[in-house]
């Protein structure tokens, strides 16, 4: 049985997230969501040179699921590191075992192994989780808003169930098939501000070689077939999707 590639994220804005946008009372926040609080996006306006946008203050859920403001320089260091890391990842076939072109004979029970070559954590990128918001008040805007985002794992190739289990086992309890985050909070915007709320989800990643041998009497023989595996999965903190929340100015 083959496990097909799974595309991460529920479809909505830019095919990556599911969004709920109605104004709502503060008391309706879900128990497993970040606790309700005032998010003061207007307290900062910083330029993000990686995404080439201006953003407000940046927040991240702590170990208790409460959104806390993070230092913008710290956020940008993570974004830059993630971009450079993904750019410099080993490419498929760059160091393939010498038997990579051999095939397993059909009709023989296969033996398989996963050889992990790397494990990483990275920020996936800003995902739009609201419609465009336009503050036209004389002084400022204070808006009660709810939002949600869901992300799922991805694998670059189809794998047998046995091989997929070996890949997920290589990262232990860190592996997640999916994760979501949602919240209802009041956020402040300065007069004349136009833009949208964005979430930058955190992902784990495991790289390696899937190797499959033919067998005789249950023992692997010959040289294996090898395939490059790039599996990515959403990270969680306190049971919810880990990542950064900010306001992107338009």
TrEMBL record:
It comes from Baia soyae. Residues 81-112 are annotated as: Disordered. Keywords: Signal. Residues 1-29 form the signal peptide. InterPro entries: DUF6060 (IPR045702). This is Toxin ETX/toxin MTX2. It comes from the Bacteria. Residues 92-102 have a biased composition (Low complexity).
